[in-house]
Every structure is written in structure tokens, then in C-alpha cells.
Amino acid sequence: MLEKMGQAAKKASYQIVQLSSAEKNQVLMTIADQLEADSAIILSANEQDLADARQNGMSAALLDRLMLNPARLQGIASDVRQVCQLADPVGQIIDGGLLDSGLRIERRRVPLGVVGVIYEARPNVTVDVASLCLKTGNAAILRGGKETYRTNAATVQVIQRALEKHGLPKSAIQAIENPDRELVNQMLKLDRYIDMLIPRGGAGLHKLCRENSTIPVISGGIGVCHIFVDESMETEAALDIIVNAKKQRPSACNSVETLLVHRNIAGRFLVPFSARMAQENIKLHADGNAIAPLQSGPAAVSAVQDSEYRDEWLSLDLNVKLVDDIDEAVAHIREYSTQHSDAILTRSIANAERFVSQVDSAAVFVNASTRFTDGGQFGLGAEVAVSTQKLHARGPMGLEALTTYKWVAFGQDTLRS
Amino acid sequence: MLEKMGQAAKKASYQIVQLSSAEKNQVLMTIADQLEADSAIILSANEQDLADARQNGMSAALLDRLMLNPARLQGIASDVRQVCQLADPVGQIIDGGLLDSGLRIERRRVPLGVVGVIYEARPNVTVDVASLCLKTGNAAILRGGKETYRTNAATVQVIQRALEKHGLPKSAIQAIENPDRELVNQMLKLDRYIDMLIPRGGAGLHKLCRENSTIPVISGGIGVCHIFVDESMETEAALDIIVNAKKQRPSACNSVETLLVHRNIAGRFLVPFSARMAQENIKLHADGNAIAPLQSGPAAVSAVQDSEYRDEWLSLDLNVKLVDDIDEAVAHIREYSTQHSDAILTRSIANAERFVSQVDSAAVFVNASTRFTDGGQFGLGAEVAVSTQKLHARGPMGLEALTTYKWVAFGQDTLRS
């Protein structure tokens, strides 16, 4: 079955690739309209998914993530209209020139072809990914979380109706509706048809894809992010940034998990730090040297385990470690960071540049919250995923990350000598 | 053992990444000098490899590929000096700007870190890859063909001596000297230390890497390349291009393997085509419709098998098929091409653009030989590999393909609201 889906997607991609930006935007507008017109179908499918989820004892937080209502669906449709406003990277000439051989050459930006996306129980991702793929001339095969499979199926059918209104094959956007996990394993082997695979989920999903996929995979989304408070940094300003990086949205991958504090400022820093953390309900996990001074403060504190340095908290918990200097901070980050987002807070221009050049992460911040690592915040207008690998795209992936290029060479019956 | 090599390479990469372009060029000059100074060591190791290869009955062609002599070693050293002349992409600001939040952001081009390369019995590749990796601030782990393991080991020792002369860790360039194939399997799992894996070899090696590597892999190097002769093309000019694409270097991946001829010109084209192919000693493999007219010509001809459309000949053999029109030519290429290099020969501007936009290959040519797909020919100054996948790099990979970027953001104690 997946083989057939792959074939159909590849075939559809040959038609989608030929659309102009104006034509693609018309399709997107129809999708937005259709999502509103057919909202009752999607909402009723979503209600069934919710009922099952409640019966299976899903937590209130997850139920909320899964839930659609007219306002949320309206928001999703208006996001699609926003995508129309973005510049289309396809067709851009990256570079080129006239070669000594007489060949006129250019690198032309083109769609990838077929994009595969595996994601969890967020029903908005279906429309999000479909609209970004279509905007960049790609077909897509989507595999959403099994908890939302009815919602996803209904949503994709609405998208397919919009495609057919424009005379386009509905196989341009397909969902794997069967929640059987074995189909994921089959999907990972469809390298003949799928050009890029984006897993959006936890560490387990990324590992599964990295180890089993024969399709090039984008790894990312896991953020063990650090903030290093250098000795030149003022305490109050540092505390504001730390609270923002931890609390603005604790469950996000770009929230801070470990604070590294220069040992020389422990004396002036740790007391107000503990007071502020207590006020913000942030629980501390401190290393051997920091735990004694912190225990006399008001914030909850326990001893940090090595494994806690390696995993995301995604909650109001924060590791704290004293370091001798910037070198020890960089060494700690090299050992424990997932290369997502790391920050230095400093007034030293030399240390700022040193940190930026030595920390090997997708995003490196000087005197700013790690929470900025985001396609919207970085001005990309959209975000398909956040990559923490180094090939193809790194950090927030916008429309450009859904394209590749081809070399086009025009000769005049030109021979290689 | 490989775990330790990986660790050491990653550690060395942190030092190499800090070098300026001038410092890196000095190291490269020392490597070139050292290759000349220590040529006796390398040539004697090469003689032992050659003696073993002769004993194992290696063909004359392969022996020649494996063989080093003073002139070839001199050429290798001068290639290293050439690499010094190339512009260093590291440090380049790709784009950036001031965001509404007040963040000043830039995408800064940086080395990948550690590059893994698996290649066959070409001793020049060792120096080639090492110099390109160092030029771009990367460390490298090399695994050459077992037939040249002594030559490679001696060469890497010479490179390491040059590194140490500059106070750099010799683990920046390491070779897996043990020819045991099991070590390749271990190397494929070193995703913790190796950032990108480049296999340079046949289809079997690429399949092994795609299926087993947990490191992002660059697939490529396999070229089933096509030339389509459209009905508006003159016969003589077409024949010159076909001969160039087949004969200029038949064993190269960018040589043509299948010729597609518009049915409407079969009458005027096939007779002179057969005469020219006979003259050039090119053996034809023709489809059902082309075989009868070709059998009356002087060129050797047999019936083509479907499997022959799928594999590289890499010899003076050429498949020939008649197609109804450009659509059938494109459909054939979509089915059988390895997406390396495909060409149209035409005088129709509409068909040229149609072919260019519909053929999904790394390089698409209009009125030129497919033999131009090459880093040197395309003006990149060097070539690490030719990618036929769509992620990261496509077609000839120059220095830029050995880099990634990081997002660097400077704030003024900037918080996300």
C-alpha cells in the first residue's frame, strides 16, 4: 500500500513542480476556504478522536493539544492565507556564470519532490506541513499521531478536495490513515519515492528514523539548551533572561535546561538567584559546589544527576552548575548540549566572540533568551521543523529548507576537451 | 578503537575550526612540501601494495589506478598547493539582519566538524580529501580501499607530521588502517562524532551506507546519464556531442549510457549514426524499433535488455531507444535515470525549457556534453564528490559542501515577549 502511495506522490510531484507561484497561492486560498466550509466534518472527526483519548485516560494537557474548535480551525485557515504572502523560493537563481568552456551555467532552486513528515498528536501540523510543501511545489506524505488519525484523515480529505477543484491530483497530499506502527517502518524505506523525511517528535522517534530510514532524515527538535552567566554579567539582567528562557514556554525545545555560572560571581549571584527562582516556582537541580549555597536560599533545590544534564526537563526545573571559566562552560556544553540553542550572558566582547565561535550549536545567542530559536522569530515567516543536524538545513527550517537546486547548463553544441 | 578515533577527531576539530584561512593555507603548504620530502616512504609503501595486488591478479587498469610514481606524487603535491588558492567559504555571512525583537542575527558559514570518507583504491583521494577538509576547517576520518592500505597509511602519516609541525593534533586527519570490513560497519554508526559521511565508490557501497549508516550520508557517484536528440537537432552536431559524452572518458560517471532519439528523425539520423559509432568502436544496444534499421548499418548492435537501461556501462557501449516525443523522453529518464546528468539536444527554445524544468537531475544540459558535470568544469575549483541526492548538496560538491552554518544572534538582554 505504501509503495502505491509513494508512486502516486512522485507522479503528483511532477505536476505540482510545474505550478507558478500565483497558481500555488490560488490552491492555498482554496484550501483555507475549504477548511472553513467543511469545518463541521473536521470538528466531528476531532470529537471522535477526543472521545477515544478521554477513554484512554489522556492527560488534560494532551487533550487540549489534540482539541480543535471553530476558533482554532479559523486560526489554522488564516495561517494558510499567511503562507500565500511569503516569497516563493522556487525558481530563484542561486548563482551562475559563463564558464571558460562556453557553457552558461546556473544553480536553479527547485522543489525537493516528495517530503515525508512523521509527527505527533497536533492536528494543526497537518495543514501547516501541507501548505508549506505545496507553497514550495512539493508533494507530501503525512503520518500523524494515532490519537488524531480521524482528524488528520478528515483534514487531508478537505485539502484533497481543494486540490481537485484546481484539477490537481489529490495524491499530492496524502495521509497514512492506518495507525499501525508497522507502516512507519515501511515508510522509512521508501527512498525511491520520498526525497526527505522530517520526524517531528521526541528523541525516540528521531532515533528510530536515524537508525532505520534509507531516506535522508532531518534530525532535530530536541533541545538541551544552556545559558552561561559570565563573570562580567549583572545579576538582575541575567535573572530576567533566565526566567524568560525557562518560563516563557517551558515545554518548548528552545527553553533553557542548564544554567552555568562563573564561579567568581557565585557570591553575589546565587542569593538573589534563589530568591527569584522561588518567586517563579522554578525548582533547582544543583551540582556539588552550588548546592550548599543554594540550600540556604528559598528556592527548592536537589542534587543534579549526570543523566539530568542530558535530557530535556520541559518543565519548571533547571540544572545549575558552577564553572571555573568560559572554557569549562564550553566544555560542558560540548558534552551535554543537543546543539540546539545555547547562550552566553556577558559584557566582554572577547568572551562573546569566543563563545560564539567555540559552541557548535544551531543557534548561539549573546545576551538574549534561547527562546528566540524559531522560524517566525528569525524572520523566516514559517517553520517546518528545527534541525539540530548539520546537513542541508540547521536551526529553524523555513521554505528554503523544502527546496534543493539543480545545475542547468546551456551550451552551443559544447564539447569537453 | 573507532570510538577512540571518533573522540579524538571531534576534539581535534575544535582546534582546527579556530584556524584562520592563512593558518590553514600554511598547513597545506607544509603538507605539500612534506609529501615531496617523504616521497620515498610513500612510494615504497605503494610498491608493497602493488606487489600484493599483482599477486592477487589485479587487472592492468586497476593496477595503473593504484600506482604512484614520483611524477604522480608531484602532481598530488601541486594539487594541494592549488587548494591554497581557493577562496575559503568559512566565516562568510550568508545573510542576516536586525529583527523586530531587537536581535541582530546572522547565518555564519562554519565547518561541519568531522567528515568521514569511504573510498576505493585511488591513493590520490587520501590527500585530496584531507586537503579539502583542512581547507574548510574540518577534521576527517578516512577509510580507503584495502588494496592501498599501506599507501594510505604512509600518506596519512606524512600529513600528520605536517600537522604536528604546526602544533596541531595529528588526529585531525586519521585513516582506518586495518582493512577489516567490519570496521566500516562500526564507522557507519559513529554519528556521535562524524557529522557527514561521503561514500565514494560503486552502487554497493552507497547502498550499504544508506541502509546502515546512522550518520547523514551523501549518496552519489552513480551516473546512468541520458541524451535526448529532439527532432529539430542537426545530425552531425548531435553525433559530435554523443561521441564526446561517451568517449571522452567512458569510465566516468558523467558519460552517457542511453541515447533517446525522436522517432520523426530516425530516417535521417540512424544511418550516419551507425557509421559514426562503428568508426568510434561504440557498440549499440537498441530497442525493438531501432534495432532493424541499425542492423543494416556498420555498427555492432544487439537488443537492449531492461536491466541495461538501469546500470552504468562505463565502457564503449550505448543504449539506443526511439521515443515518440519529448514527453516519452522525459518519462524514460524519470524511470531509469540516477538523477546525475541528462541532456537535450534541440533547436527549440520551448523544448529546451520544458526538458530543463521536467527532468529532475542534479545537472541538466542543453546542447552540451554530459561530461561537464565536474567540480573543476563547473568552476568550483575542487570536487569532494558528486551528489545525486537532494539534501545538502547536489551535483559536484566543492568546498561549500564541506561547511554548514550556525545562526548567531546578538541581543541587548533581549527577551521574547
From TrEMBL, chains A, B:
State if Protein transport is listed as a keyword. no
Q: What does this protein do?
A: Catalyzes the NADPH-dependent reduction of L-glutamate 5-phosphate into L-glutamate 5-semialdehyde and phosphate. The product spontaneously undergoes cyclization to form 1-pyrroline-5-carboxylate.
A single GO cellular-component term from the record reads: cytoplasm
Q: Which organism is it from?
A: Izhakiella australiensis
Q: What is this protein called?
A: Gamma-glutamyl phosphate reductase
The record's annotation in PROSITE patterns points to: PROA
Q: What EC class is this?
A: oxidoreductase
**Subcellular location as annotated:** Cytoplasm
Encoding gene per record: proA
Recite the lineage of the species.
Bacteria, Pseudomonadati, Pseudomonadota, Gammaproteobacteria, Enterobacterales
Cross-referenced PANTHER family: DELTA-1-PYRROLINE-5-CARBOXYLATE SYNTHASE, GLUTAMATE SEMIALDEHYDE DEHYDROGENASE
